[in-house]
What we know:
Number of domains: 2
Structural class: alpha+beta
Number of helices: 10
Low-confidence stretches: 263-269
Strand order of the largest sheet: 1-3-8-5-6-12
Amino acid sequence: MQQNRQPSVIRSLPEYRSLPRPVVARAELLHPGTLTPWHRHDWWQLTYALSGVLELETATGSFMAPPQRAIWIPPGTEHKATNTAPTEMRSLYIDSTLMQTAPSRCRVVSITPLARELIVATCLLPPDYNEQAAAGRLIGVLVDQLLQLPEVAFNLPMPTDPRLTRICAALQATPDDTRDMVAWGKEAGLSERSLARLFKQQTGLSFGDWRQRLRLLLALAALERGERVTHVALDSGYASPSAFIAAFRRNFGMTPMEMFSPRHHTAST
């Protein structure tokens, strides 16, 4: 979903044939422009941004993890990840036997304060932690908390129809494009009604809701970099900062200032 950004660093992947423990943790600081290339694995992964904004792509859409959000990735799901700002990342690789009640799809969840501290504590464990001692009990509490995390709408489902994918690509490149659905329909050779029906059928969102979510998700990286809300709002195609903030609050449950305030970034390492 990113706008013509070239990766500057290729992230290395852990070389596990199988997990040495039921939960394996990885802590990293990713430089701006880091690319995790397309790959898949045989276990669940929770990708968590303590700070920065992480974008994950799959065949069916994009998923964004701003600070204190995380992305669940089921086994066998091919995906790649990128970030445009310095990102403090925590990854958990979890054996499938512990995740039998989890929905088998990618999704973004909100990290609770307790889950955050459990993740941080797990990242401090030695790779060969004793499953029968305190470390094993910590892992049990961690998994129990992770399974209860609430899902949030930081994903952007993508259509498969070539006519719609061309429209989506154009909007991703120029999110401030103000053409209405009638104009986009003419460009794609579809009536307004056909475009609306097909878009809803393939993405689960109306055309207007999809475009609004795209604009808001693309704005996350700029907000994380500290750019002024006024500039971000206008670049995103909004007529005023107040309209942008209202849409942001409706979609994400908080204002940009609340999401990117220092207290939301603070976490122990």
